[in-house]
Amino acid sequence: MQHAYSVLSNPKLRSIYDSYGEQGLRMYESYTSFAEGSSDDGGGPTMVPLSPGQLASIVCGAIGLLVCLFTALCVDVLLKLNGSTDASLSLLLIPLWILDSFALLALYIFLTSTARKGQPSHSAVFSLIMLLLFVAFQVLVCVRVDGTHLPFWAVFLPLYVTEAIELVRACARVRPSAHDAERAAGKAHPTYAWHVLLTLGWPSARVATLVLLVLRLDGLLALDWWLVFTPLYAYVLFYLCFGCQQLSTPVHSEREQMLQMGHRLCMLFTSVLALLLVLATLTLNGDLHSWLPFFMLPFIFSGCFCFCCCCVVCCVRMMPTSGPVEVPPGDGFDGATESGASTPRSEIGQPTEDAPLLPGAGAKGGYGGKRAADIV
């Protein structure tokens, strides 16, 4: 009751509830608590709370900026691979450098905030190390392509380090105790053999592909590109068979239904990657004379996202919003008499038991006749 009265007596909160309902009010309160806590232990200013429409616009704008940078990167790489430009690769990868800067800045902010609260995040530190290794790989690729004759084993050295780390982590996950813990949390397959194959299969396929790729690029082995990517093709085929077997399993609970939905999404993502890998193999073997088919899927995704994002922002901004409702004087209860007696609910079409109504809860109130208990 106290929470409901605090909502009804605040014009801002009441307007948000009228416009977006209880779920929108919860989102706003969560964001407000986050904004007020942003200055704790930091001495900085408190963040200004935003309306749900403004939040949606900011989120869509931020993601749209990332998608635009990704699209610009794809265009630059396509021009370089097709030989349509003589610009240096380091210049063409400016969108990638911007994306790397955003990622590093986000990880730095997260690490500093968790450090101030005394809650170090090992996953964030690991992500930072992996990102730095990936940036080092990008720099070495630019050095190799722009004229310095580095061997490809040196160019791919940061990737070998990352894959070795991932392989060690995968080996730690296949321990029986780790499998039991992940199974209890719903993150692992119930069968231990499937868990081992799925956990070790993907990093092993990547490592084998990297070894064959370096040998092929350095001219040590004259392999066809289909053979170079054979480990990846084998794992994709294995995972698709596993996914089909999982989808044919009967569902007995909501948790199993969510797991099946996750398998569907993973199978879709794996199928898209397999298609891109096939297009890359055909282009490298000379069967396709342009890299445009390889980049068509990213371009289609970027176009669809930007179109949908613009529609969402326009719809959110065009949503009607109700103005704040004045709080009645006195004790704030509609229909209350001077002696404090409340209006019987039977007079407004409710059950006969007496209960006080909150501000705006009448037949014409902003809550459509809801009681405080309904809001709470």
Detailed description of the structure:
The protein is mainly alpha-helical. It contains 15 helices and no strands. It has helices at 2-8, 11-37, 52-81, 89-92, 94-116, 122-145, 152-155, 157-173, 176-184, 192-217, 225-228, 230-247, 254-284, 292-318, 372-375. α6 (122-145) runs antiparallel to α8 (157-173) and α10 (192-217) packs antiparallel against α12.
The gist of it:
It contains 15 helices and no strands. It has 376 residues and is mainly alpha-helical. Helix 3 packs across helix 5 and helix 10 packs antiparallel against helix 12.
Strand content bin: under 5%
Shape, principal axes of CA atoms: globular
Order of helices and strands: HHHHHHHHHHHHHHH
Given as residue ranges, the uncertain stretches (5+ residues, pLDDT < 50) are: 38-47, 330-376
The total of beta strands comes to 0
Task: Name the features.
376 residues; 68% helix; mainly alpha; globular; 15 helices
What's the layout of helices and strands?
Elements (H helix, E strand, L loop, with lengths): L1 H7 L2 H27 L14 H30 L7 H4 L1 H23 L5 H24 L6 H4 L1 H17 L2 H9 L7 H26 L7 H4 L1 H18 L6 H31 L7 H27 L53 H4 L1
Helix pairs in contact: 3-5, 3-14, 5-6, 6-8, 8-10, 10-12, 12-13, 13-14
